[in-house]
Amino acid sequence: MSSSVLYDVPGPKAIVRNRIIGVVVVLVVLSIAAWVIWRLFDTGQFTAQKWELFTYTAIWMRFLEATLNTLAAFASAAVGAIILGFVLALGRLSDHAWIRVPVSWIVEVLRAIPVLIFMMLLYYGLPVVGVKMAPYFAVVIALVAYNGSVLAEVIRAGVESLPRGQKEAGYAIGLRKSGVMRLVLLPQAIRAMMPVIVAQLVVTLKDTALGFIITYPELLYLVKLLGSNAQFGSPLIPAAMVGGSIYVALCLALSYVAYLLEKRTRRSPRAQRGEARPIQDLTTTQLIATQEEPDRIAARRGFGKYDGSAGMGH
Q1: Could you say which of 29, 50, 140, 240 would form a disulfide bridge with 235 (CB–CB 3.0 to 4.6 Å)?
Q2: pTM summary value
Q3: pLDDT band at residue 151, thresholds of 50, 70 and 90?
Q4: What whole-number distance in Å separates Cα of residue 16 and Cα of residue 254?
Q5: How many angstroms separate the CA atoms of 152 and 189, rounded?
Q6: Residue among 105, 116, 69 nearest 216 (CA)
């Protein structure tokens, strides 16, 4: 009988027990779903009056506008969070304590502040000191600050999870720290942490819904607005179903784009040539070639890597 590394292969009694547990779980889930649907029917959530609102073209145009506002905030926040994450991660990985310690405190503070409180401080707090901020910028800045700090820890953890020999081999063949980080460590860390990065971007997309608290006209703001329409029976549940479906579609689309990006990266010629491969699979020429040009420029100017010590020698 074959065995698994993680657990022993179940015997006949264990197989029967697992099947019974699986059937019971499925029946419980189906029962809960049936009860929820019954309650929706019983409370009139599927009546024509509550869904009549969604037969108007103007309503769907407003959903389109709200979706575009959501995507606009997400796109700016995602780009800003990734850039901030890289900057903070490099600071956390610095060998200099005067850089590493302050950046570590900044990361911890930004991670500790809830996104909603950050948005409210920017939108409602700054006017107290005479600074007014539009809801869009309050949403984007809050999302960049929080998710950037989280991504910084993700990237740092990815770099530190790599074998120590990767860094040491890079130094051994003459690479500077910037070259080791750029050519050896970061490509491997990003590829290893890609699922976590995508998951955090999905969180960023969903957190844009918090903008309705500060009147940013995104999807949840529109859902709340339509749900309070008494003329159509206050269709909050139908509006939430439509808005929730749009959120699910956006998150699935983002996950699919990330999957295509990862698949393309694995098949790209640069990856096959060794940009993100372990350092033992690279040649010295491939790694040092990208650093030769700055040395040539320095040589033309009459000084080089050891210009300080050379000057002292003369």
Answers
A1: 50
A2: 0.74
A3: very high
A4: 40
A5: 12
A6: 69
| 205, amino acid identity | L
Residue that has been written with the tokens 């608290």 in this structure: 213
Name the nearest CA neighbour of 86 among 197, 173, 165.
Answer: 197
In Å, what is the CA distance from 296 to each residue of 25, 287, 290, 292? 68, 16, 11, 6
* Closest among 81, 75, 98, 93 to 150, alpha carbons compared: 81
- What length does the chain have? 314
pLDDT digits (tens, 9 = 90+) for 207-239: 999 999 998 999 999 999 998 888 888 888 999
Residues 6 or more apart whose Cβ sits within 8 Å of residue 95: 177
Report the alpha-carbon distance of residue 78 to residue 103 in Å, rounded.
Answer: 20
Distances (CA, A) of 83 to 70, 107, 192, 208, 295: 20, 14, 18, 19, 28
For domain 47-293, which architecture applies?
Orthogonal Bundle (1.10)
Contacts of 74 (CB under 8 A, 6+ apart): 143, 204, 205, 208
Tokens of 286: 């491939």
> At 206, which amino acid appears?
K
- Could you report the per-residue pLDDT of 254-285, keeping only the tens digit for each? 888 878 877 776 665 555 554 444 444 444 44
The DSSP line for 85-106 is HHHHHHHHT-S-HHHHHHHHHH
Nearest residue to 87 (alpha-carbon basis) of 102, 74, 69, 73:
102
Phi, psi of 270 (to 5 degrees): -65, -40
Tell me the C-alpha distance between 110 and 155, whole Å: 16
Query: Which residues does 30 contact at the CB level (< 8 Å), separation at least 6?
Result: none
- What one-character-per-residue DSSP string does 12-41 give? HHHHHHHHHHHHHHHHHHHHHHHHHHHHHH
204: tokens are 């960023």
Q: Which two tokens stand for residue 228?
A: 């309070």
